[in-house]
Amino acid sequence: MSRPPVYVVDGARTPFLKARNAPGPFAASDLAVAAGRALLLRQNFAPDQLDEVILGCASPSPDEVNIGRVVALRLGCGLKVPGWTVMRNCASGMQALDSALVNIREGRAQLVLAGGVDALSRAPLLYNDKMVLWFARFAGAKSMGAKASAFLSLNPAQILSPIIGIMRGLTDPVVGLMMGQTAENLAYRFGITRAEMDAFSVRSHQRVAAAQDAGHYAEEVVPLYDPKGEALVADDGVRRDSSAENLAKLKPFFDRKFGNITAGNSSQITDGGAWLILASAQAVEKHKLPVLGRIVDTEWAGLDPAQMGLGPVHASTPLLQRNGLALNDLDAWEINEAFAAQVIACLRAWNDPAYCKEQLGLAAPLGELDQAKLNVDGGAIALGHPVGASGARIVLHLLNVLKRTGGKRGIASICIGGGQGGAMLVERP
Predict the structure, then answer these.
(1) Which terminal residue of the chain, N or C, has fewer Cβ atoms less than 10 Å from its own Cβ?
(2) Mean pLDDT to the nearest integer, 39-68
(3) Model confidence at 83, in pLDDT bands (50, 70, 90)?
């Protein structure tokens, strides 16, 4: 049964801004509005001609509940255009694209703005339970004497020991491991050395720097203007002086005694937003829209949360099989770089006969992915990983890579906290 085509018309994203131990200048909705406004201004249709707006966000603030609707209204889509929010951890932006894809194929929509955003620098500090109970007792005290007694019972240590929201959010509640600890599991399982992780990270920074110099990000990144009026025009997490020698000086963060995962070979905590416009064939014809590419197929997979970094293997493999493709039949790959060890582990798993047989049910390994096709302009280790946005960013950049290189097909894939993986197959006209 043939399915109606779903086209990507255009896309844009903000610069990805590295968190620097303080709240950044932009709320998540600010980032999404900035990227969306620039994108919509260059289209042949008005914002109120969209059928819906879908935004992935892993950590919206309390005053941006259903941030998709908030942003749709701020973008001038009008009262009648529905806006909604999806959350699939690291793949929230990719889930937004998949939800748009399904609605267009089912005929419920013709023209959709879909993407993802997060402002991780603004992740909250939370009161612990003892502090919350103290507030409850203080608020419930009726007399001045009772309030004074409650006040005197306050332990200053309770105030000075907040819960760091982003640390809690990056810890799997089922297996009790932080995401970096799951990457340590993969490094141990596949014998990945610290030197290999650091070398991969250096390459990511080098590739991003080279791509910036060559203008490869210029067509997708739109400038931001901070409250002081300063223009922010490029991803600011890239380290042009990155070297194996510099990275070797960093101490392990997640397993300080035996580990090898450091801040330098992990993705950066970052703020950013990314959008794509998806359209049916009828919408493309009606509005005379250009076509950047087509989303062909999507796959979601589940696996052990303690091994979550292998999600791209579990999602991409059935996607390849369903479409009759081998690893190197693709012209380009984007695998989100949550951790250097995690991407290296994916490459080794595909080439491991035992893993492919026992975990994927394959008679033989898929083989070795040509790394000249993988993350050709670098990835999240240098760019950063604003969790809600990354799934949309890698799809947008993959299409731009195919456009630039004359490639036809590619896969964007991402590991997902909680033990999942997502993969999206796209092709150029």
Answers:
(1) N
(2) 96
(3) very high
Angstrom distance (rounded) from CA 109 to CA 97:
13
Task: Note if 205 is an active site residue.
Answer: no
pTM over 0.85: yes
Q: Which of 90, 205, 216, 314 is catalytic?
A: 90
356 catalytic, yes or no?
no
* Mean per-residue pLDDT over the chain, rounded: 95
Active-site residue flag, 385: yes
**Catalytic residue among 205, 216, 385, 397, which?**
385
Among 97-106, 152-161, 373-382, the minimum mean pLDDT is found in 152-161
HEC profile of the chain:
CCCCCEEEEEEEECCCEECCCCCCCCCHHHHHHHHHHHHHHCCCCCHHHCCEEEEECCCCCHHHCCHHHHHHHHCCCCCCCCEEEECECECHHHHHHHHHHHHHHCCCCCEEEEEEEEEHHHCCEECCHHHHHHHHHHHHCCCHHHHHHHHHCCCHHHHCCCEEHHHHHCECCCCCCEHHHHHHHHHHHHCCCHHHHHHHHHHHHHHHHHHHHHCCCCCCECCEECCCCCEECCCCCCCCCCCHHHHHCCCCCCCCCCCCCCCCCECCCEEEEEEEEEEEHHHHHHHCCCCCEEEEEEEEEECCHHHHHHHHHHHHHHHHHHCCCCHHHCCEEEECCCEHHHHHHHHHHHCCHHHHHHHHCCCCCCCCCCHHHECCCCCHHHHCCCHHHHHHHHHHHHHHHHHHHCCCEEEEEEEECCCEEEEEEEECC
Residue 155 has pLDDT above 80, yes or no: yes
Domains of the chain in start order, with CATH, are 128-161 (no CATH), 179-216+296-424 (3.40.47.10)
Confidence of residue 11 (pLDDT cuts 50, 70, 90): very high
